[in-house]
Write a structure and sequence with these properties.
The chain is mainly alpha-helical. Helices cover 46% and strands 11% of the residues. The chain is built from six helices and five strands; from the N terminus they run ααααββββαβα. It is globular and about 50 Å long. The termini are far apart. Bound molecules: zinc ion (ZN) and manganese (II) ion (MN).
Length: 147
């Protein structure tokens, strides 16, 4: 909970520092992004927002996410089918596990990630700036439903 509050305050602070108005609508979007439960799509964020702000358009939600992304405060996970998902709770590169059936996305805790980064850098002589590591599979819920 404190983690989500910290993320909320950080994103709001960054917007304010860059001269952006903090409207109740914008705060609502930031609140959802700060939690990023399930790595929502723009459509899912819009759906949630509309409960409190029925007139807010999908385009407005999208513009705000683009703005927050430009400040480096949300991680965009793009997919070949165009379905982008967002993580404002962890805006830095980290591995994901993705269900190919229900599109659920979770963050695994990988102890080996740091050593993997080091190994890649050493083996290729690259300075690694970023990485993308996705594991695709079928979640336990979908496995249970399989007939
Ligand atoms: Zn699933
Ligand atoms: Mn994530």
């Amino acid at each position: 909970m404190s983690d989500r509050n910290t993320r909320f305050e950080t994103i709001i602070g960054k917007l304010r520092d860059n001269g952006h108005k903090i409207t109740p609508q914008r705060m609502a979007i930031v609140r959802i992004l700060a939690e990023s439960l399930g790595h929502p799509s723009v459509e899912e964020i819009h759906e949630q927002i509309r409960q409190d702000f029925p007139t807010m358009s999908l385009a407005t939600v999208y513009r705000n996410i683009v703005l927050i992304k430009s400040l480096g405060e949300v991680l965009e996970l793009g997919f070949p089918d165009g379905s982008n998902r967002y993580d404002g709770n962890k805006p830095f590169p980290h591995p994901h596990v993705i269900c190919i059936r229900c599109k659920k996305i979770v963050d695994p805790d990988l102890d080996s990630l740091d050593s993997m980064k080091k190994e890649v850098a050493e083996e290729t002589d690259f300075k690694i700036l970023n990485h993308r590591l996705d594991f695709f599979g079928i979640c336990s819920n979908c496995m249970a439903e399989k007939v």
